[in-house]
Amino acid sequence: MKIYDGSESGDSEETTPERIKVGIAEYEVTADGATLTTSGLGSCVGVALYDEHSGAAGLVHVMLPVADEVDDGKPAKFADTGTELLIEELESIGANKRGIEAKIAGGSDMLDFSEGGSGIGDRNVEQVKETLSDHNISLAGEDVGGDHGRSVRLQATTGDLVVKSANRQDRTL
């Protein structure tokens, strides 16, 4: 898609970055400035990784903390294997692990139980942080917890993660 940039000469056009939707238990990587989005982050966690030097960025939507012994063929479904997969995929398109920074959102407790909720959201956040630490990747920002859902948009040209929620103002990490 081309858009007019408003310059006086009328000759300039710029390309609008592609927008790629990431579903539950899915991931995407880009090195061409696409915008990666995901929605429905309740207890799930969106993990956004960005390497400024290579311009590589990726987003995974994980829903459970740890992959079990049974391989269901969906490593992006789990916080441990999904985060590791995203790191590997970023490296395969030119990212240097030492330059990658992470931002995360989600991990809410959406269920109202008398015993204090399910704890899946907290466990997802904890596992993502542990996996990032195991790979020496710094956590540059987070919007986690609470009792509300979120949607995120990773702007791969800048590494900004825009977090949207119905009950509050958009937040940029």
From TrEMBL:
Signal peptide span: none
Alphabetical keyword list: Chemotaxis, Hydrolase
Gene3D superfamilies reported in the protein's UniProt record: 3.30.1330.200
Record SUPFAM superfamilies: CNF1/YfiH-like putative cysteine hydrolases
EC number: 3.5.1.44
Pfam families according to UniProt: CheD
Organism superkingdom: Archaea
Single Gene Ontology MF annotation: protein-glutamine glutaminase activity
GO biological process, one term: chemotaxis
Record's catalysed reaction(s): L-glutaminyl-[protein] + H2O = L-glutamyl-[protein] + NH4(+)
Protein family according to the UniProt entry: Belongs to the CheD family.
Function per UniProt: Probably deamidates glutamine residues to glutamate on methyl-accepting chemotaxis receptors (MCPs), playing an important role in chemotaxis.
Protein name as it appears in the record: Probable chemoreceptor glutamine deamidase CheD
Biological source species: Halovenus aranensis
